[in-house]
## 1
Amino acid sequence: MFTPPSQFSAKEPTKKCDRPNDLRLVAGSRVENSDFVASLPLAAVAMEFRSFRGRARYFVAVSGIMLVLFETAAGYAVFKLLDDAKLKKADNIWEEFNTPEKAQECLQLVNFKKFKSTSEALESAVDLNDGKLSKTLKKLLKKSAGDEELAVGDAKLGKLINEKLEVPCVHNSAIAELMRSIRSNIGSLLAEHKEEMNAMNLALAHSMGRYKVKFNPEKIDTMIVQAVSLLDDLDKELNNYQMRAREWYGWHFPELGKIITDHVAYAKVIKTIGMRQNAVDTDLSAVLPEDLEAKVKSDAEISMGTDISELDLLHIQQLCDQVIELTDYRAQLSEYLKNRMVALAPNLTVLLGELVGARLISHAGSLVSLAKYPASTVQILGAEKALFRALKTKRDTPKYGLIYHAQLIGQAATAYKGKMARKLAAKVSLATRIDALGEDSNAGAEVGIEARAYLENQMRSEQERIAHKGAPGSHKQKGSYQFKSEVHSYDASADTTAKKSKKRKFDDDEEEKPKKKTKVEEVEEEDSDE
């Protein structure tokens, strides 16, 4: 039987074998589709075969053993790919593994390292997620892998294995399709551990979920995102309830809505007086000031509203209870959000306030994500629809998004709002990075306070400049034209004006006017003088 040498060199250009034809073996060439390749050992060998009788020259490529690393919830499995030629056509790999029988013909289990407990499985999964190799995986690869190529489902994992253990790893589209095929037939390939795998899948999923919730660094950000979203929803619901209460009770006492503008006070008055006829005998000093109380009582006696039943009043008062309770809860939620924002992002809170800062964090997803945004993105965050519409129509892009509701921009002059938004966004970007990535968690809001003082000074100086010179574009240019209007006295003679007659004049009138001498006559006179 033919046995190739372990190393090829120019000193050994020819070798003899038991084949019908004498073949010469040369290093550095490739051979494909040879019948006797199966008799060669599964090592990476490249050979060129040439017939001494002048026959055709052909090439064979022996790619060698390829191992496949597959991760499961029960442990790590290493398979040997028996026919790696099937990987050359990634589109047809699924056809070679679509049944358990075909999968077992192409793959052979080399080693399976089972996890001892759920905690070990969780530790290995966390290490892989963090880009580390667990001890279990290292032991398995040192025992199973040698110089053979190792197919992995993740390119980062393959790079890590190559760096740590110096094992050549392969990952491409064909390997990804192979992993998908193995996953679909893993029950038949690991038939001995099938029942354990089902239980371990569920246990590892629960453990991984608890771990992510427990050690999530953005869990405080999540509380802020949920709180500010609930606060916005409460504002919408409160507005609907208050408008409904005013419209409903307005049929009975329409004058009350014009007297009391505060929604909570309006609901409390309805709860206190009930029917409008009871307003005269009811004490409203705990709800309204004296002047409004007197106005309510006087208008209740002459109200133009319709009568309602006790059942109608009961439902209206229950709606008022909802308005009062939701208003109290909104105040508590707002205080909770303020405390959370001061603890998480003190510098951002000083610059923007807790509400606008929380909305920026909610829009970005987390404080760390917001810290990664440049100042130009922070400036227009929340105005994405207007931005893309402006880019599509080739018009001016928006100057501000959610940051427009900040107090500093609201206090700035209209012509200065865009510039103030740009300056504020730069300071917000810096403050957010300090809050998210600062090493000293007890540093406080010193950076935010200094930045706010700087922006206030800038705004004050800009307002003084506008007050002295006027707004940009409104000051007078030197040498510009100025229209001066003159005051004319009234001309009484212009009251009636005689218009020229359009009638044909008589011959007598024509004779009165001297006739002008024509040039021809003048020429004749000159000739006569000569």
## 2
Amino acid sequence: MERKKEEEMSDDDDIHSNTGSVNSIGRSRRWSLREAALSLSKSLSGGDEDERKRDEEEEELQLQWAAIERLPTYNRLRTSLFFQHQHVVEEGEKQGRVPVDVGRLGPIERHLFIESMIKHIEKDNMTLLQKQRRRIDRVNVKQPTIEVRYKNLCVEAECEVVQGKPLPTLLNSLMSTISVQTTIPV
């Protein structure tokens, strides 16, 4: 009877050891499949180190903005991320964006901050207008048009540049007439 129990226990041990080896084989296969998929995705994307670095920087920037959003309202309004230039960075610190109280900026930092904010205004406006145009086109909204009709009307206009002012205003027309009369030799 004891012999049967010993055989059953040894059979159980064999089953557990076989199960363990099957599990480890399954894990190693899954692991190798993950590695293969990861290496395949890296090779397809070119394994671009710059892209990975950009993603990390963008993620860090989002984390910093999330930290600013958790501040109390008054502090949140006065805090922004300021790019730390290389000459400002102390040894051991990495170059990047740091949260700064805007009210405590010195004149040079304030000037740099304002320059960085208005640097790409035209580009920002153009992208905003392009986004609006795409949205309007996507939903097929027709823009209102104004049509003005006159009967028996003929309009002619001449535009001269007077001292760098090409707009045909009454004042510019008067200045043009005066400048032409004063330059005519008698």
## 3
Amino acid sequence: MVVLVTRERRLPYARAVEDDVALDRSFFDKLVQPSTTDTDWDIYLVESIWPILSRGLAALALEVERLHFRKDGDPLVRRRFCPLAWLAQYLLRNKPKSGTHDAEGVRREKQLEKFSEWADLERGRREIYRREKEVRRVFNGFSARRQVRISALPKVVAVLDELTWLGGELVNSEYCKTQSILESFRGKDSIDFEEFWRWFAGPARGAGGVPLRWTAFVRAEARKHYKDARELKAMRIEEKEVAVVGAIRADEDRDELEFTELCTKLSENEKIRRILDEDFILTGMEPAEGEEVVDEVPPRGSHVELLCDLMEKAGFRKDPNRFSGDEIAPELAALGAQQTSACEGAKWTVGCMHQWSLLQRLLVCEC
């Protein structure tokens, strides 16, 4: 900070300092601690307090000079003057939240923006310092005998950009473009990590190194969080799909087990075996020689319930359209309408009879 105060400007108005304060980056760098610190409290203090405090100190200096050079000043007033009280009142009057929108307020806002910009750059530079081990690992991946060729440095920067989720902000910066890298190491064929680090991160104090702001790393963290959230969402969707498929397979296994048990019961039933062997009819009665077989006669016996269960397991009652055979599907669709009119108490209906006939045809077709 530089305060230009000529002898002619030693007037009784301390607010003249508003036009005479000039800030530069070197002044900011003198206030903060070395960038190797683990915390950024010093940056916070400088960014939030020092812009107003610096103007207050400059105004206080002018006020002290005004009291000193004023010939008609009251000595009692000089003795009662408290610099700390005067500075505290100045800070209360000029805190950022109570700033005005006149020319004075605009100048104050511009200085606050300048300090915020420097603080953003300083935080970004410190973040690079904190990632030295990560940068070293990437550099060593391209090294041979602890040296990396200059032509490979753009690839090193590209890998660092990808691993830190910077989204191209590093490789697209003017400082890290291929032409800038070649100019920075003109006349050299390869470099070690120490030399690369001095170029990449800059000195421990002061300006230098990749001019990446802290906001660039904030955006990088947001990108990583967004990708992690998407992967987590995709993983949860996949888990739900796996659970649904598992439930379907469990139902299929249960149905298959029930069907197997039913087939076992059918195979153990003597009447069913004789019916399948065409030695018996569904009525359970053997026809006499020359006697016409009447299919409409309701079957009787313990095998009827097993037959009904078998046809239901085969899907005739649940979904008649599941079979796509050209000859079978239309008849099954017609049977679906007939089943609704069947009496609930009837164990064997005309629909059941046709279903049994179609089931036999289906078994023959599949065989």
## 4
Amino acid sequence: MTFHSYFQSDITEAVMAQKQLQKAMDLLADEKLRTNVLLQRQHELIACLSKIDNAVSSSEKAQFGKVYKGTWRGSTVAMKVMAMSDKMSDSEKRERMALMETAISSSLSHPSIIQTYTFSMKPIMISTRSGSQMSSGSPATSSGDLHILKDFSGFEVQVVLLDEYCDLGSLRSRLDLFSGMQYKQMLKTVLELGSEVARGMVHLHSLNILHSDLKAVNILLQNNPSKPCGFIAKVSDFGLSVKMDLAMTHISDLSIGTLTHMAPEVILNGHQSKASDV
């Protein structure tokens, strides 16, 4: 090969490398733009938390906190307020952070799953060795990272979730009312609600998420005149939920849930799977 050929080959390779570099730079620029848009949206949503009005105490209680009925952007919402201390046990932290991670996930947008509109996490106080306490001026954060508590060591963290409001309460609170229905009407209602819960669970499982605590008290009902029974069912309360890796078919040695609703393999071996979840 002549010197000219070598020189031409080097130029060609340099041009190709330049094109590949430019392509990579363009991809990074696009990714940065998308990230900035998402961050801006999160900041706007969190700012809206300060605009909640007409918040009143509700008789309903969340698994890990208190629930208030309020108005946000003209819509009725359920405002869940939870406090997380760095003095909590590891299991308590995991349960609360699992709730946060699942609740804020955009992938959980489904008609049969409770929708979370926005959330806020804010350190509200810090305890010193002398026993005194002082307020924290740290800004709120909006992360679903399971390890975010490490950033708030020494703080008590207030978590606020804004969820869609289910005006009819839990399925457990309504079960006694079904006994007054005629058999055919009750059967239609049971089948309709069962299919809605099943669709919600199918969506969760398609994302490799295990609910781990499915029961009547964790299924909320919302008024819907277009339905034959007059309401719809939505799966809620993801405090014990677990995210599996794509290659996983089950999780071992994880005995969590409500004892009366746990599958035998979960009680005996801690074998959590999509099958045991329902």
